[in-house]
Design brief:
The protein is α/β, with parallel strands linked by helices. The chain has a single domain, classed as Spore Coat Polysaccharide Biosynthesis Protein SpsA, Chain A, CATH 3.90.550.10. Helix content is about 30%, strand content about 25%. The protein contains eleven helices and 13 strands. The strands form three sheets. It has a nine-stranded mixed beta sheet. A two-stranded antiparallel ribbon has the order 2-3. Strand 9 and strand 10 form a beta hairpin. Helix 10 crosses helix 11. The longest helix is centred in the last third of the chain and has 13 residues. The chain is globular and about 60 Å long. 1-O-phosphono-alpha-D-glucopyranose (G1P) binds next to strand 11 and helix 9.
Length: about 290
């Protein structure tokens, strides 16, 4: 793909301050982002997706009871020594793959749950004046080429702002940010309107935003107005809508299976899909699944 010299996307924001009430009591003490999908926690899946896309700085917007998320990406000398003494070299490799090198992980806090827009605003100083990605760990996309890599390839063509999109059944529009589109070509749609969680009857389309964004820093000006929207929360979608007409804004129909791991069913579906493709246990998982028929 041609790179038209748009400013590169080097930083990614991971909003991880949410309470995870849909997984209580499992998430009473443990952050929902630490729930495992196959052999690694949700947050590691999305950090790996960002790493593969060339992201250099990882910014967690955390909150109370979320320290475990930072710890997970730390160097753990005692664990590595124990594994080495036991000759478990393959396990050492796996543990090392979960580390983030010095100077790459940054954390900021969202003191109150005021909405996704507010969570992203909390990272404003760490982003500064450059385009950046946002990854919502609840949304997993299973594909050889990660969703964020696909998006950065598209960004290198079009610049501006970009969201990952997929069609949802009309009766589910009230769970998502929904697009009003004017052009739809080769998997890239140009956006003329954005509305957060519309009733099915009012939704301008059924094309919904999945938790991957590439945004220009001007978004922070609009987020800083702290205007409340759907659900009485400060919505990222509302601030994005203010950029329409001023900057290019596209949606990418990404490739891959999407799982909403913030729902129990989506979480189970993701566990099945990721364990089925695991070379160590995939065949046994298939046999197990077949035995339930
Ligand atoms: C958020 C966004 C919404 C988007 C969704 C994707 O909603 O506000 O626009 O479609 O993520 O997962 P939430 O799921 O936090 O309610």
């Amino acid at each position: 793909m041609t790179n038209k010299n748009f400013k590169p996307v080097r930083k990614a924001v991971f909003p991880v301050a949410g309470l995870g009430t849909r997984f209580l009591p499992a998430t009473k003490e443990m952050p929902k982002e630490m729930l495992p999908i196959n052999d690694r926690p949700l947050i590691q899946h999305v950090v790996e997706e960002a790493k593969a896309a060339g992201i250099e700085e990882f910014i967690f917007v955390t909150g109370r009871h979320k320290n475990m998320l930072e710890e997970h990406f730390d160097f753990q000398p005692e664990l590595e020594q124990t594994l080495e003494a036991r000759g478990k070299y393959d396990m050492i490799e796996k543990v090392r793959a979960s580390e983030l090198p010095a100077g790459k992980l940054f954390c900021t806090r969202q003191p109150k749950p005021l909405g996704l827009g507010h969570a992203v605003w909390c990272a404003a100083k760490l982003i500064g004046d450059e385009p950046f990605a946002i990854i919502l760990p609840d949304d997993l996309v299973n594909h050889e080429e990660g969703c964020l890599t696909q998006m950065i390839n598209t960004y290198n063509e079009h610049g501006g702002n970009l969201v990952a999109v997929k069609d949802v059944p009309r009766d589910q529009t009230s769970k998502y940010g929904i697009l009003d589109i004017e052009d739809d070509k080769d998997g890239v749609v140009s956006i003329k309107g954005l509305v957060e969680k519309p009733d099915p009857a009012d939704a301008p389309s059924t094309l919904s935003i999945i938790g991957r964004y590439i945004l220009q820093p001007e978004i922070f000006t609009h987020l800083a107005a702290f205007e409340k929207g759907a659900g009485n929360e400060i919505q990222l979608t509302d601030a994005m809508a203010k950029l329409l007409g001023k900057q290019p804004f596209h949606g990418l129909r990404f490739e891959g299976d999407h799982f909403d791991c913030g729902s129990r069913l989506g979480f189970i579906a993701a566990n099945l899909a990721y364990s089925l493709k695991d070379p160590e246990i995939g065949a046994d998982v298939k046999t197990l699944m077949d035995s339930y028929k």
